[in-house]
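We treat protein structure as text, and this decision shapes the records that our systems exchange. We quote a single record here, exactly as it is kept in our systems:
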Amino acid sequence: MRALVLVIALVGAAYAQAPTPQAPTAGSSAPSEAEQLVFIHEHLAAQRQPQVIRYAYVADAAGQPQVTDRAVLTLGPDASGRCCQVHGDYLSGRLAVSLPDIPDARANPMLLYFLEGEVRLLQRTTSGEAAHFRRRIRQALADSATVTSGTVQWGGRSVPAKTVRVAPYLDDPYRARFEEQAATEYAFVLADAVPGGVYAMSATVPARAAGAGALARRSLTIQETK
């Protein structure tokens, strides 16, 4: 429970300043399956030994050179010597995102790093405010996200995975201010068999013309260690 409250508190601070939720009561709404998978699920529950998890970042946009970078999640001992306090190093330069370290982490904060990076990118490139985009993401995960089951390849074998997809801005009342990016779809591929429980994240801006390639795609994918 401590880990769950800590993670939701961090999400609430970053996404719509929501208060730390209490256990659902009669008449209240429990988190959706998408919210559970992205924000609450204990992705790090099996990682109780110090280790480093690396992710590769790739950004493609029409008419622009490809951008590559990396993100690193370091699981280390806390002040008492127990595992794990989690520190993230997310991308570099203008793309870099810094968030507080999390003691006794169970959910994978790389999901928050990715979302916060997306929010800041939208704020830089549109007339929108970061707080608005955060609220839209959180609300869409509660109301309209889809969850599908499948598999991913890890360690030379197929392992179960779930993919959460959400397009937070399709019905945004302010979408005219950022029309080109309003169709952005986020996808989160989650697999407990993968270290850290998160296989990949992506943001795709589809082309307006049917059958055309995406206008932009940004992805973060775990790198298999040897």
